[in-house]
Every structure is written in structure tokens, then in C-alpha cells.
Amino acid sequence: MALRRSAAARSIGSALAAGLGLMRVSFARGTRRRQEELLLELLKQLALMTEEIHRANLIQHYRLTTDQLDRASDDSALADASSTLDGLSDLRRRQMMYANRQFGALVLAHRVGALDWDQLLGHLRVLCRNSVFAEYWDRTAEHRRSLPGESVDAKVGVVVDVMLEELADDPDEWWVVGSVPEPPAHE
């Protein structure tokens, strides 16, 4: 882990050093237009690095969460401490935790750009056909009520609600989804 951070820090440091070197050359020549162009390019690069760091942080957070879920799945005492779902056998609780993990992985893939909105919907349609996932979704409805309405998680939640309702109405047309919200902007 430290090695990855060190490599990333060196990469960012190298990019900044190169940019500063270019700016020094430009300032020495005194061309104001070129200076502005270089500054804009540096700002674009900084924005890209910021987005990449944000995606890396999301991935790291997901890793920490799944590590905790793995430990809780292996130890019923930890599962009791981390689960808010009552009245489940140890086996069923592990299944619910895994359903949560599958859903989380799909949302993460969308948030970091590995799945576009339509791809996410396709994967969610398949996941909604699973009875364990459907039970997990029903049991965790209260958890989603506190999500900010404009968040990616809330918008995806609305889509899953629609999918599960339509699947219950017509299970033979599971691949068809009615009106779903527009894809959310990445956070």
C-alpha cells in the first residue's frame, strides 16, 4: 500500500515539477498568452488528478467495507455487531451481506467509470431477479430513506425499486424497465 502511494506521489510530483519547469521557461520568454495556456493546462491536469484521487479513495473505501463484511461473514459475533437485520439465521445473514456486497460493487463500478449508466441498469436487472437480493432490498428499505435525494446511491435505489416492482408485476419481461431517472452526475 505504501509503495502504491509513494508511486502516486512521485507521479504527481513529477507532473507538477514538469509543469513548473514549463512555466518558468514561458515566464522567461515573457509571452503572456503562452503563460495563460500553460496555466490552463496545469489546472486541467490538476482537475484530472483530483478526480483520479477521488476514484481511488472510493475504491479504497469499498475495500475496507468488504474486508469488514468478510470478517463479519466468518464470525457470527461480528455479524451481530455489524448487521441491523434481525431474525435471520447465520446463513441467511451471510447471504444478505453478500447481496449488499454485490450491489455495492455495481454502484462502485458505475461511480468510478467502469460501468456507464446503461451497463449499470443491465447488471441491476439481472441482480433483481435473485430472490436473496430481492429480500435484502426489501429488508433494507429503511436504510435508504436517509440518503440525500440527489445522491448517486439514492437515484440507483429508485431504479432498483422500479425494477423490483416491474419484475413482481411481470416476471417474464425482466429485461424491460419503465421510466428510470436520468444517470446521476458523478460525485
Percentage of β-strand residues:
under 5%
| Mean model confidence by pLDDT | 81
Domain module tally: 2
| Separate helix tally | 8
- What are the low-pLDDT stretches, counting only 5+ consecutive residues below 50? none
Helix and strand composition category: mainly alpha
Q: What's the shape?
A: elongated
Tell me the total number of β-strands. Answer: 0
- N-to-C series of helices and strands: HHHHHHHH
Largest sheet: none
Q: Cα distance, first to last residue?
A: 25 Å
Radius of gyration: 23 Å
The helical percent reads over 70%
InterPro entries: DUF6082 (IPR045728)
Protein name: Secreted protein
Pfam family, one: DUF6082
Structure description:
By secondary structure, the chain is mainly α. It has two domains: 59 residues, no CATH class; 94 residues, no CATH class. Helix 2 packs antiparallel against helix 4 and helix 5 packs across helix 8.
Please describe the topology of this protein.
Elements: H1 2-29, H2 32-74, H3 76-82, H4 90-111, H5 117-128, H6 131-139, H7 141-144, H8 152-169
Helix pairs in contact: 1-2, 2-3, 2-4, 4-5, 4-6, 5-8
Pfam family, one: DUF6082
Protein name: Secreted protein
